[in-house]
Amino acid sequence: MIPMSYAQRRLWFLNRLEGPSSTYNAPVVLALSGVPDPEVLAAALTDVVDRHEVLRTAFAMADGEPVQRVLPTATVAVPVQRCAPQEVDAEVRRFCAGTFDLAEQGPLRVRLFVARPDESVLVLLLHHIATDGASIAPLLRDLSTAYRARLAGAAPDWEPLPVQYADYTLWQRELLGQVDDPDSELSRSLAWWRENLAGSPSALPLPFDRPRATGASGRGGTVTGHLDADTHRRLVDLARSQRASTFMTMQAALAAALTRIGAGTDVPIGAPVAGRSDEALHDLVGFFANSVVLRTDVAGDPTFVDLLARVRDADLAVYAHEEVPFDLVVEQLNPVRAPGQHPFFQVMLTVGAHTPTDLRLGDLPARTLPVDLEVAKFDLTVYCTELRDSDSTPTGVQVEFQYPVDLFDRATVESMLAVYLRLLRAVALAPTSTVGALQVVTDTEGAGFAERIARAAPAGVRRPDLPDDGPASLREEILCGLFADALGVDRIGRNDSFFRRGGHSLLAIKLVNRVRAVLGVEVGLRDFFVDPTVAGLDRRIGTLAGTGARPPLAPAVRPDLLPLSYAQRRLWFLDEMGGASRMYNIPVVLRLHRPVQASALTEAVRDVADRHEVLRTVYAVIDGEPCQVVLDRAQPEVTVLDVPVADLPGVIDAVTGHVFDLGTQIPFRVWLLRLSDGGQLLVVLVHHIAGDGWSTGPLLRDLAVAYEARLAGTAPGWEPLPVQYADYTLWQRDLLGGAGNPDSALARQLGFWRTTLAGAPQVLDLPADRPRPAQASHRGDVVPFGMDADLHRAVLRTARDSGTTVFMVLQAAFAALLSRIGSGTDIPIGTVVAGRTDEALDNLVGFFVNTLVLRTDVSGDPTFTELLARVRDTDLAAYDNQDLPFERLVEELNPNRSTAHHPLVQVTLVLQNTGSVQNGAAGPSALAGTEVPFDTGTAKFDLTLGVREEFDGGTPKGLKGALEYAADLFDPATAQLLADRFVQLLRAVTADPGTRIDDLDVLTPAERRRYGPAAEHGCRAESVGLADLVARHAADNPQAVAVVSGSDRIRYAELDADADRLAAHLAARGVRRGDTVGVLLEAGPTLAVAVLAALRAGATYLPLDPAARDDRLAAHIRTVVLAAVVTTSDQATRLAGLRVGRTVLTDVDGWRERPAAPPPGPRDPGDGAVVLVVDDADGPRAVRYPHRALVGAARRAGLDTDAAQVWLGWAAPAGGEFMMPLWSALSTGATCVLPAPAPPSAARLARLVAEQGVTSLTVTAELFALLVEEHPQVLTRLRQILVTGRTAAAHLALARDRHPTLRLVHGYGGVEGGWWALGRVVDTPPVGPDVPVAQDGLRCHVLDDRLRPVPAGVRGELFLCGPGLADGYPDRPGATAARFVADAGGGRMFATGTSASWSAEGGLRVHGPVAAPTCNGVPVDPQRVSTALISHPSVRWAVVSVRADADGGEQLVAHVVPTTSSVDVAQVRRHVAQLLPEHLVPARVVVLTTVPLTGDGRLDHRGLPDPEDTGAGKTARDPREEVLRDIFSELLGGRPVGLDDNFFRIGGHSLLAVRLVNRIRSTLSVEVTIRDVFQAPTVAALVERLTATVTPARPTLRRRAGVR
């Protein structure tokens, strides 16, 4: 690729800047006496294009550089257009006004217009990028030669050109050298130009009729004048006598004329130079012409002769440096730019001689015709054409003034031309006259020129000295990064001119391309040049996007009732709902540098309140609507306190925690603290309803001005504020319009947010230490942390490389962290925007900030770079729709409303890159001071990540972070760990932004050691099987009792011998090692013998329940292939038609006659021992356990396994609750009690424990709860008890407290993972609903979806490992492989599908299914609700589930067993509402007499009855229910309302809640609060609450009678 020449590059840039335009078309129009042969002409033109490469060259960008692409060949077509003679001129002009796509087309286009058989017009339309004035002669000469040759049937015979234009381009660069080489020709010449043009006016003031406008059309007009032959001769003689040229004479006269009409005395004029400094270029077509700036000095009122001498000397110096391309002069000298204004000069002068027009095309006579393209490249272009006769005698000068019609009227330019012609005639006659003495401007022309110049001047150039300030929006911040990146600087201000900071045209192209790519907006170079600053381009983008126009903000007519702004309404509502608190205070505490006079301070505070209405506003409710009441005058309280230094922290906490009553107190107070050490502290406190962070600047500034005035005994002399906050409130509503108007900003932005936030999580799952309480206390604390300068630089670099901002980098990292610690891949993060979208608000105190929801999509495992691109697109779209108030958004989207959490977002991110409140506030004033840090002790959100950028000058100094956390949810250690993880992740992604999010390591080194693959999991493989252990115990203690069943006792010797006999019988019937034998027997000694016999035969046994229905029994048998079934003759009949292999009847076959010797053959602990069949929603599934899973299971669970234990096998024989105690006993030489079959119940267990002397009991959580509540005495008889499943902490705590010597073990496992895979001895009463069930390092992992360990506190899936695992699913290898996966530490592990987490102390907490249940789209934890229910003294047991309600929605339903015969359901619900968020309060509570259980002692969900219907058609049970239902319905537009319909879910929102409260107060005469509505948002729940509290209603505030 060959670079463009400098001249070409400039034209190419202008083409890109202006878009498709004919401005730089250079047509050659030939009138022919005849019609050429089109085919011959086409061949000749092809020859010419082949001879001159530049005519077959395309111009484009490659790798960011403009290049020439020379095409190998190009065939020229010659379209013929026939038209009437009178149409030719118009058609030629239309063709010549066409545009070129320089990147795709060659710069030559041809058309032949035929009017008559003997008359035609040939147009060669060229773009100036490939030609210039001196190119016309060689072009036409070569065309004529080629046409004659082709007409004769031959190719043209011409000498090859010595060079091509591309050669010139490379030679030009070699000739000039490099800019950075001080010895190069280019460097020396540029230094000369820099000196020569220093101080030159950037814009020449001309008498424009209109100011220069953005997006000018470029259309031009021309006026023509004539100098007579005598004047021409005199001017030629004058030039010769002064050793000057005619050009110099015309230039001096033009400069003098412009000075006389008001353009000043420093007149830069542009002029073309041929640029063909080497003779090899003389016959070459191409763009060689260059422009030079001829700076003409008319100062001091010189004579014209003196002026001509000045011009001569100046021009000769310029021509010595004419080789430097004008484009490079512009780039390197970087003048002030303005859109539509040519740099350095705006007036161009061309002086030339008239050339003969007689030519020939072959044999056809031809002449060139002028073409007026009606375009203007400059503010004024002056063409002077000398006319001479055949012997070169001067015969006159034709003078043309070409002008842009956007700037001038024709009459004005005619006057300018007249002045020029008068001056030329005058100096021709009297060249020694002073320029000022020449009478060339009439009085009428003077008042007019001067007036126009004065009017046009302000519309000229942008001021280059605007302040370098920070970005005012997110898009501006991105643009700042892109500008800085293009310019190679660290930082750039929003008002810095791109060109003043070193930019040039090529960099501008690159920047615009980058802006297009990053922001996805179709912005052009012209848009950039309108105002080449960050702020200007941002405004232009806003205009292009249709977001630029806004109604003006001005003082408004106040209505009788002044509404709150949307932001204020939300704060007022929160104040009403939660009660007055310090949470929304904005305090500033300053340690003053100088003592303050209290009386002057008091007056100044009143002045500030007078100045800012919002500081003297209270908030009332009138006719159910909150409104602002602006007080005419108010004296804010100024309290002076004398404080001992030691008491200062407490005093600061007390005063900054002052609680405002918004209904009666203005939201502004001040304290002056006089310290015992002589120092003074100023505390300024504003409620957030009247201010925001930005407001502290103008507030302190105004306070300082007022104080200094009052100190001097005067009132402050400040300029009045343009508007007040009340005006903003009304303007905001006007700006947004109505939601019912689809064209309003409100409707558009609501539509955007509705789409953007559809399906977003309502509550973000965070790794909290505690569950969310019913009502957030908003207690909080802060963890500070730091990020060094290296990381700061890395963040800045990442932002710049990705076309994003520091905020976006932090947001993406924060979202990535939250995603990696269990918050999912849909992460809504809140942030605040200043909301001061009109400059009239800049100095106003008030609450303008708005909250934006930035929904961050981390799905699909993106790289960090890809995530940043998503964040950028999301954030820019959000900021384009930032006017919609957050509260209005909440009303529209109507998420689940709760006093427990913030709606829509629970985590926020704040970036501060400005100074403290003192920067530019009090400054060096009498109130100057140092900020005093203090802790507010509050948290508005679950987590707020605050980051402040710090710079040393312009050098990144580091990032200071602060993680504010809700103390309801997090411990300090957890918050610190989150901060540490954030820094670790931020460092990783900025070091390698190509890293995928799922590849980021969020574990600390300690966690990696504890939870990683190399961690010790305490898994010891067993080396002996169950059958061998029983044989060992039979040999060691043959008379020990093995099994007790009723009155039957079977000792180990007998059990061992009978098992050997039956095993031999099974072997004789064909049972082999690896087979499966079904055992269909009642619980008792024979069952024990049968299962042991199957193991002795090397087989696996499948226990079958004789009590099962026939269909269920058949289904279980079909799950495996059986070699035999051991049963009795009465049960055998049930097996007819089933594939069961051999049938062995224990009551008929003669197996007892066989010798007591086991079948020979090897056995291994890895052999299958038991197959259990469990029923789930997909039908029965079989699970096989090896011997090693059962051997030592009790010991691994934490139980005592001595032989003196008596175990109870109380469950049905086909399940794990029977299998585990049986083998726990027989494998340890202990006794197992096998009672007669009966439905499980707590009473039965208590009786069996007492009767049989049971010492070891294993029970389900359901049975354990009933035992603790109904039969606590049973626990005194036991030595140990193991509880399986998610057990209520309350019941474990009760058992632990009442029975301190009892060994209480909480076991957890499951079918595949081993029934007691995990066990934890409960030494201390547990706290909270998530009971720790194991210590870390014990046979389990908690892993993410890529099977990596999760950090402490983060939920993952529980994987069980170790010897207790099942083998898998018999004959189902695919299903086995899906759930039993390789363990990175060796062996296998089982995916439980259960959510779990590690506690900070190292315990394992089990939380329920990974796919947590939801109710109306909100995740719920039924176990937590059950725990809250059980904590009520009248509830013994509870279970909670999600069920359909009467209206087709979902509701939480609780089934409870009371401690007494009856229970007050309303009281129980109120109790739960005090403990849990309202979405977790059961809508229905169903009272049961007992817990329905399955055969293995677990809850039988099918036995839980449905609640009664309370839908809209259900009759109210209480008169107040009927009244409330009517009020609900009326406020919701008349819709039917059920007793359990949630007010907010059926259309209610916060403002309606306010009206609801007022209606209830006035109708029922009871006191009710907004908080009551939030916590009890149904008719039934609200009636319950009103029943419990009968406070009389406060009086209703109404408008006075007669007041409108």
Describe the structure.
The protein has 47 helices and 54 strands. The strands form 15 sheets. Strands 5-6-7-2-13-12 form a 6-stranded mixed sheet, with helices on both faces. α2 crosses α4, α13 (474-487) runs antiparallel to α14 (505-519) and α44 (1519-1531) crosses α47 (1579-1588). It is elongated and about 150 Å long.
The CATH topology of the largest domain turns out to be Chloramphenicol Acetyltransferase
Number of helices: 47
Which class do the helix and strand fractions yield?
alpha+beta
Going by CATH, what is the homologous superfamily of the largest domain?
Answer: Nonribosomal peptide synthetase, condensation domain
Q: What is the radius of gyration?
A: 46 Å
Q: Which CATH top level class of the largest domain fits?
A: Alpha Beta
Task: Tell the overall outline.
Answer: elongated
Strand content: 15-25%
Q: Compute the number of strand runs.
A: 54
Spatial sequence of strands, sheet with the most strands: 5-6-7-2-13-12
Tell me, rounded to a whole number, the average pLDDT: 90
Poorly predicted ranges: 462-467, 915-923
What's the helical proportion of residues?
25-40%
CATH architecture descriptor name of the largest domain: 2-Layer Sandwich
Total number of distinct structural domains? 9
Distance between the termini: 79 Å
What summary fits the major beta sheet?
6 strands, mixed
Region (Disordered): 204-226, 1498-1519
Pfam families: AMP-binding (PF00501), AMP-binding_C (PF13193), Condensation (PF00668), PP-binding (PF00550)
Organism: Micromonospora maris
Keywords: Phosphopantetheine, Phosphoprotein
